[in-house]
Design brief:
This protein is α/β, with parallel strands linked by helices and 204 residues long. It is built from 4 helices and 9 strands; from the N terminus they run H-E-E-H-E-E-E-E-E-E-H-E-H.
């Protein structure tokens, strides 16, 4: 199978205007991934499945990632005149990197016995622009996994056939896998009406 860099080149040939790049993994696995702009996600996904050399027909895993805002301190040595003498000082500059949410898909080809290809998409931010295209129309295995990502991270998957909470209850308003999530004070709280459910079960 082609490397991530080679697949990236082929995607750009198929979609010249597409936003796609390789994110390198510095670990020993060297499992590099493809970061695709959200507006191109569905088209690239369909191409990965239909391409005769790749035939990525199975999504084994889909998960979410939370990357909060972060401040990078950049240090630079510059020369300044202090008390009439030129001296070298270290100047610090704060660089703000806005946060985002990410969906990550691990793709395989059962037909070609190859993979994985790791596909990533990022939201515009963590608060307002949290929409990404659902890849369920391409890989049915994404349906429940995207619901889990929505439930735990808050990514809204446009085009999903049944986007609703999977693990948390409907009235829950937070996203437990986000890094700024605050645990509740009362772990004894349980919203499920057990008695009502038990009575319905006995009546059947």
């Amino acid at each position: 199978m082609d490397s991530a860099a080679e697949i990236c080149v082929r995607i750009r040939e198929a979609f010249p205007d597409a936003s796609v790049e390789v994110l390198e993994n510095p670990s020993l696995s060297a499992e590099h991934s493809l970061l695709v702009g959200a507006e191109w996600g569905l088209k690239v996904a369909r191409w990965l499945r239909s391409d005769s050399d790749l035939q990525m027909d199975y999504c084994s895993n889909a998960t979410g990632v939370d990357c909060p805002d972060r401040i990078e301190i950049k240090k630079e040595k510059i020369k300044r005149v202090v008390d009439g003498e030129e001296t070298e000082v270290t100047e610090e500059t704060e660089i703000h990197h806005p946060g985002y949410l990410e969906s990550v898909y691990h793709l395989y080809s059962v037909a070609m016995k190859q993979g994985p290809i790791v596909l990533r998409m990022r939201t515009g931010d963590r608060k307002e622009d949290v929409h990404l295209p659902s890849l369920t129309p391409v890989w049915r295995a994404c349906e429940l996994q995207e619901r889990e990502i929505y439930d735990l991270y808050g990514i809204i998957f446009d085009g999903h056939p049944d986007l609703r909470r999977l693990l948390m209850w409907d009235e829950f308003t937070d996203f437990p896998m986000r890094k700024d999530y605050v645990d509740p004070d009362d772990y004894e709280y349980e919203p499920t009406p057990h008695n009502e459910v038990l009575e319905r079960a006995k009546a059947q």
